[in-house]
Amino acid sequence: MTEIITVPLGDRSYPIHIGTDILKTLGDKLKEIGFPQRVAIVSNPTVSQYYGSIVSNTLSTAGFDLLEITLPDGEEFKNLQTLEQIYDELIRNNFDRSTGLIALGGGVIGDMVGFAAATFLRGVPFVQIPTTLLAQVDSSVGGKTAVNHPLGKNLIGAFCQPEMVLIDVATLNTLAPREVAAGMAEVVKYGVIKDENFFAWLEDNYLPLQNCETDALIAAVKKSCQIKADIVEIDEKEGSVRAFLNYGHTFGHAIESLAGYGQWKHGEAVAVGMIVAAKISAAQGLCEQADVQRIVALLKALKLPVEPPDYSLNDYVAAMRRDKKVKHGTLTLVLNQGIGNVKLSQVPDISTVFSEILNP
Question: Is 12 a catalytic residue?
Fold first, then answer.
């Protein structure tokens, strides 16, 4: 049984296929959407070890001509130097505008392949096959692609929608528990920003999710993708409500930048960022302390960190000032109104607002 969600963007609409053991259907699904016959599969050694042969076999059987590109594994390699390796292989192998790319891996692979697709020869089609929970519920959907810069996360990128997303939750069985937990942070985010009933469902089902039980995973992934698809339909390029998806990310990105990419998982940093945002919301009277405690309790239950690392306020402020959401020196924060709703709040004085939370 495969669940299908459509990201409705007119002539650029695309399907998200969600199921278990559906990697082997990739070749047929690509033929159905008329994907180019010559493709490059971009992955890393860890993911290739588990799923590279399944993907290459289904594509070869369906008549596709394959090039396999393997990149180093880790957030610390999500940079322009690694991106050039993709370009180098495509150029050496005479790829042109009638070819396509396939991202097989987590958020790092998906973001880099998407950015390569947006920029190689000014644009070629690509497909996302996310193999981590975080990528399945967040980064593979919506068309945001980027690489990191030493001074900030995802500062160099482009919007580029995939032709299709194929999510096989069976790939999560080979994930380390820490990776599963990191992905759960983004799942919790969807409940906080859009659906209190979903948040309550997560409170009741955190154990099946931690244990990677298929039915629970498919339900959580489907709901998360549906919420994101609904938001992207309204605001593809983050002019308004898509910014809600940044809940917890401003402070989370600061943690990742200060710690050195790869030291904190993205979801771990976002978990702490959500708590910081919730505390600011409570201080401004937008939510109750009980709401903050529910968020803290659920993240703790999912084995996520809830306390920020011990960097100075000045370091945090400097990192946040480099955030993409800063305009004319003013930071836009996403703050929760209870659970299930959020608003955008302008923060001209970053130091004061965060000082009250970090140094109570």
Answer: no
Distance CA 106, CA 352 (A): 36
Instruction: Out of 222, 249, 279, 294, pick the active-site residue.
Output: 249
For residue 69, the surrounding DSSP H or E stretch is strand 65-70
Single out the residue in 174, 190, 212 at which a domain terminates. 174
Q: Which residues of 134-168 are buried (b: 16+ CB within 10 A; e: fewer)?
A: bbbbbbbbbbbbbbbeeebbbbebeebbbbbbbbb
- Are both 208 and 155 inside the same structural domain? no
For the four alpha carbons of 90, 84, 257 and 246, in that order, the dihedral sign comes to: negative
pTM for this one? 0.93
Same domain membership, residue 63 and residue 136 = yes
pLDDT digits (tens, 9 = 90+) for 95-120: 999 999 999 999 999 999 999 999 99
Q: Tokens 């004085």 sit at which residue?
A: 349
Q: What is the pLDDT of residues 7-16, one digit of tens each?
A: 999 999 999 9
Q: 223, 242, 294, 325: which one is catalytic?
A: 242
